[in-house]
Amino acid sequence: MRTLRLLFIASRVFISVILRLFLLSGVTSVLQRAVAVVFLPGRPVGKAVKFDYARGGETLSASVAPREKGKVEGAEKVYPRWGFTAKEINRFNEPELAFFAPSGGVYVAATAWEGNAATSGLKSRDIVKSMDGKKVETIEDLDVLYKKALDGLPAQDKMSVTVDRKGIELHYILKYREDTEKDDLQ
Fold first, then answer.
1. What is the pLDDT of residues 78-113, one digit of tens each?
2. Domain that holds residue 9
3. Where does 17-167 show beta strands of DSSP type E?
4. Do 162 and 127 share a structural domain?
5. What is the CATH number of the domain that holds 155?
6. From CA 159, how far away is CA 145, in angstroms rounded?
7. DSSP-H helix ranges across the chain
8. Would residue 171 count as lying in a domain?
9. Residues 40, 11: contact at Cβ < 8 Å?
10. Helix, coil or strand: residue 139
11. Is the confidence at residue 6, as pLDDT, over 50?
């Protein structure tokens, strides 16, 4: 019981510190995301907790509610011709990626050494926003684009890729004419 009480006090202090940091820096849009990941012991799912705080002499309030954890691992798939492994963002396993993509998405989990993705500029932990002008939100979205890309070979062997790298939107051309996996086996 004592451990639970200490944990509750520690979580309240943590919330207080987070609120102060974000409110002092004026970043109120980040406030809900930061507080939403905080553990609220014994709180039923969906039951909100209201926080009142002072800023510039004015009393403001915010509320958060615990959510169901959901899947522990995001789906993962290898795209050999593109030269990378993609994984769905899970807010518990990849909180820093979930910060930049709060509604979820897909990221580059790994790139093949000297593979098409790596030579095109993609890096591990890039959040894939779109490919070939099509929005990417799930592994299934990538599956559709991958099939279309392979069906279009050899006439079409490159596509545009937009990624988010630590909050910065970057654009690349992924060239996949070379079958680097096949070349490695010979």
1. 999 999 999 998 877 788 888 888 888 899 999 998
2. 2-64
3. 49-55, 58-64, 76-79, 84-88, 106-111, 127-131, 134-135, 158-165
4. yes
5. 2.30.42.10
6. 10
7. 2-24, 31-36, 95-100, 116-120, 139-151, 180-185
8. yes
9. yes
10. helix
11. no
The b-or-e profile of 38-73 (16+ CB within 10 A means b, else e) is: eebeeeeeeeeeebeeeeeeeeeebebebeeeeeee
d(CA 8, CA 43): 11
Q: Which residue has the tokens 């490695």?
A: 184
Highest-scoring range by mean pLDDT, 9-13, 42-46, 54-58: 54-58
Residue 54 lies in a domain: yes
Q: State how far the Cα of 52 lies from the Cα of 7, in Å rounded to an integer.
A: 21
pLDDT score for 57? 81
Residue 55 shares a structural domain with residue 94: no
Q: What is the pLDDT of residue 133?
A: 95
Last residue within a domain, chosen from 39, 64, 89: 64
pLDDT band at 116 (very low <50, low <70, confident <90, very high): very high
**Total domains, the chain:** 2
Q: Which amino acid is at 131?
A: M
Whether 107 and 164 map to the same domain: the answer is yes
